[in-house]
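tool_call: predict_structure(chain=1)
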Amino acid sequence: MPREQAVAAIRRQARACAHMDAGLYADLLTRAAADVLAGGPCAAAIAGYEDAPADDVVSLRLLGGVHALVLSGLAPELARFYPSAGGAYRAADAPACWTAFRAIVEAERDTLSGWLRRPPQTNEVGRANLLLAGLLHAAHETGGLPVRLVELGASGGLNLRADRFRVEAADFTWGPADSPVRLPDAWRGGAPGWLREAAGAYPRLSVVERLGCDLTPLDPGDLDDALALRAYVWPEHTARAARLAGALELARRLPVRVVTAGAADFLAGITPRPGTLTVVWHSVMRQYVPVEEWTRVTAELDRLAAAGSADAPVAHVSFEPHPREARNDFQLRARLGTGPERLLAEAHPHGLPAWPT
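tool_result:
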């Protein structure tokens, strides 16, 4: 039964990849599921992880490990199909691509076993589009005080530098014109009026502290950690890879601090600071936090909100999936102090584009 469970999980991920414009991975995973069922090299590669929880996304761990080999120049036969390595992929390439992929999985089993032990970890730069919108909303509502950015599940801390990114839409721009990170086509149908007003009032923000937490933080300045971040961007998503490359460049110039801690324990040490706006934000991380810990996170957020004041305001900004009916809507929500939570926008899971609600 564990093998059948693994096959079902791989097939679910294949469908998700197809839905997210990742045909290469959708084809590879469809064939990998059959290979696992037949006891081939993919079955050997995931041995011991067949009954892992769905949130472990074992298939993405395997794909990430193979992608790292491709990006490192260690899988040239496969690289010719990976756009991230200068290759190209068409549906007609599926048999040859699978043959090269299967050969790498078989030959590099020891290397890939290390990737099976590490959680897939992205630092999706496009989601800064929503986080920045929430930040500008909070700044406008509280008078433009200097900002403390506090991120839960910060990974490599790339989005803690979001105020240095350039956001662009048909009727809207914000951020340094020379930024190495550009977020184009950010809003479908135009940016909402509240965002245009906030951006007009605050063309620049003063960020005086950047602090995050993660259970397994990555260091963008470390070559292996940077490779891991690049490897978990799907190879056909070259625009995402370009945004990540820009953010890695920016990270070399602008240090931030990401501590090893769970979200609840980390928040317990955060208090409002007079003369600053404390913004706690997170994006697509709540699903990885156990229910009992998120109950503690909520209690800490409530404590922090209640401790805020007009001189030391607190905002909570989140970009997370919110199940509604039969689909998951990724929503930007913001709460100022102890006030009500507001739904501000919805967006593609990777943050681009967003649209007003």
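agent: The longest strand covers residues 314-324. Proceeding to next step.
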